[in-house]
Amino acid sequence: xxxxxxxxxxxxxxxxxxxxxxxxxxxxxxxxxxxxxxxxxxxxxxxxxxxxxxxxxxxxxxxxxxxxxxxxxxxxxxxxxxxxxxxxxxxxxxxxxxxxxxxxxxxxxxxxxxxxxxxxxxxxxxxxxxxxxxxxxxxxxxxxxxxxxxxxxxxxxxxxxxxxxxxxxxxxxxxxxxxxxxxxx
Length: 185
Known about the structure:
Residues 62-169 form the Phosphatidic acid phosphatase type 2/haloperoxidase domain. There is one protein chain. The chain is an all-alpha fold. It has a single domain, classed as Vanadium-containing Chloroperoxidase, domain 2. It has helices spanning 2-22, 26-35, 41-54, 56-84, 89-92, 110-126, 129-145, 151-170, 172-183. Helix 2 crosses helix 7, helix 6 crosses helix 8 and helix 7 (129-145) packs antiparallel against helix 8 (151-170).
């Protein structure tokens, strides 16, 4: 079992260095710090506000589901960070091409959690799931490129985000019935 963990850790480091060092170029150095912002929970709270204001009844319902999932994702990813306390790659590795700095622990990626939550729910409700998932993958890739996460951090964040989305979508009818009861009192 320890051999398997060691192999997984080595693969994680190899992929990290391929993305973080070998793929470095001026185009990505400009683009990735911009793209990574689509993983911020505040970005998605803004999307919720836009949907609620301009999206009609469907937009308000999607915004509510998204808001619930975003809050769950934020709480769970932050709790897991402080349970695992994994240092950021640039804090422990040499030769990291670092384009961002954070003080919080690394595992799991909160950006990957949030962007996968949003992209799965929006893709499910509005279509274009492949485009949304492509966005989620690119944002997650940016976290490794910037030197703030290992590939396993973003994979764990993606799985957490997908899991939370599935749970919220599963309970969608109950959530919307409760919303309607509260609104029509």
